[in-house]
Write a structure and sequence with these properties.
about 5% strand; mainly alpha; two-stranded parallel ribbon
Length: about 350
Amino acid sequence: MFWRRVLEQLRRRIERPDVIEEIDQRLASDELDHNAIHNIVERIGQDDMQLVLVLDDFHAVQDVKDIVAIANFADGLRSLITRQEHKAHVVLSTYRPLQVVAASFYVGFSRSPFENYFVMLGLRTLRQDDIKRLVALALSSAQVTFNDTDTRFITELSGGHPYLVQLAGSVLYNARLTSSTSQDDLDAQAQAFIEDAATLFGRMWASTSSEEQMLLMLLALDRLQGKLSGKSYDLGDVDKVLLRYGREVNELARRGQISRTGTSAESIKIFSPAYEWWIQREIESGTRQDLRASERLVNDRLPTRGQANSVVQALRFVYERKEAIANMAEWTVKVARRLALAAAGAG
């Protein structure tokens, strides 16, 4: 199906009658694979044209049960990008490391690593100046304008995550377009953002290891201290846990799920207040079985029994305060709004 779609797309874009004729012959065949593409790539290459295949969400191949078919598909891609002349180009996007994705379908096969043929480029978080430029470019021909508070609000809620920057901007833009709401009244837009971002947050959480999930829960619990009816709980020495799991902390930072300016708990935070609240909500909204699973994870991974008991008590404390956690969404958006207003005022 994939190679047929490629040929159909090529047919729409190529004007040479002889190449179109060959594509039609290929499409008439019941069986198509990458070999049907090679000669086409060669012929369009002679006209200084190049084939670029862009495969989004490539990590989805891990969900395919037919590993042999996926391995053969990957071999087909590789054969097109390793041609001697007139190579094709392949761009992949994945929220998991490519070597991890490739290992799922190359295990047991005597092939050189699939990821060896790609240059890895991590999509970094965007800085405030980056977001300002993107907003200015996006609104250059629009009927809507954003002020400094709006731009800062986008930054605070999104944590600079490229997709979330786009999502926050879209929510704000639609509100400005359809409502006469004051530009400083951002609470409703933030609530809408949190709802729309939930799917991505779920994917981000699912992509983490059990150790990483424990660290994210620990950071979320640490930030929740004193905000539930003014009550607190003891998490023990959080800094010691972060030091013990330095590799996982580094990996979370590399993937943009946390931001840090040092090694202590005070200098490490979950990248977005909205994601932080989502994790807190995950703790309280689960079933008793989910709570027990989190408790087992903490008991298995934390260095001392005393600290494990402290964190387990904190998990139960949060789990039993469902209404308070639900109300924390309002607190989250007000914090983001306050930070945005303060930053705009300072500027």
